[in-house]
Design brief:
Layout (H helix, E strand, L loop, with lengths): L23 H32 L1 H12 L1 H28 L6 H30 L4
């Protein structure tokens, strides 16, 4: 049995993400989910690295050399960036859970504060790491 439903070709069936103007709250929400996923996999690698340092020295050496390589350093940088973003945005969500910060100007400022916190703390972490251990070798 066919249903004869006439649809106007000028109107979309359902709105799509591409027609919406991106707002800081939606971008940070999506980024929060992506950084959570990155933290999941990055933390598993770091736990494996720590475990191997105690129980499998040969495997530790392999993981250390991989994490010391340029792609490994890029992954570690991304993990640190994800960590600070997820932390800052998680604190922002805790305030929202208390009913604080829902006005649009405050949401925008707190979102920009999260981005600023992320960039400053990531840069500070890498600066301290590189100056106390020497160059990434």
């Amino acid at each position: 049995m066919q249903h004869n439903v006439k649809r106007s070709p000028a109107r979309p069936i359902s709105p799509h993400l591409t027609i919406y103007r991106k707002q800081i709250s939606s971008v940070l929400s999506i980024t929060h989910r992506m950084t959570g996923l990155a933290l999941h996999f990055g933390t598993a690698i770091i736990v494996l690295w720590l475990w191997s340092s105690a129980y499998a020295p040969a495997y530790y050496t392999t993981l250390y050399s991989q994490l010391s390589s340029i792609p490994g350093q890029i992954c570690l940088f991304g993990w640190v960036l994800s960590f600070y973003f997820h932390l800052g945005n998680g604190i922002r969500h805790l305030f929202w859970d208390m009913g604080i910060g829902f006005s649009l100007p405050v949401m925008k400022r707190s979102g920009l504060a999260v981005v600023g916190f992320t960039l400053v703390m990531t840069a500070l972490t890498w600066f301290i790491a590189l100056t106390t251990t020497g160059a990434a070798s």
